[in-house]
Model the fold of this input.
Amino acid sequence: MSATIRVRAGGRRLPPHGAARRDGDVVRPLTPLSRTPRTPIERRLLERLVSGGPASRSDLVSTVAVELYRDAVRAGGWLADVGVLGERLFAPEVAGALDAGLSVFWEMAATSCPGSCCRG
Done:
């Protein structure tokens, strides 16, 4: 499949995962929101942005994936693959939710930020 193929997600047409979004893109929450968050990952991403301010896409995905991993381990996930795979098990789902929530909960833009202004 080429990068020009579009997939349907969240009522909008989005490029395939990773095609149009760069890890250095800065994510900022929108106000007002188009709708309330429906999934635990949407809620977690939005909470992180509201409490911590703008963050780079990669930092936000990593932070939320670590939080979800810790929650899973506390709930007994250390007995299964969660304990072996770590937070990288959750990163693709977090990144997908981040891309799907674009223009609903947050905006994403490329930046020349040196890093200190967009840490989450």
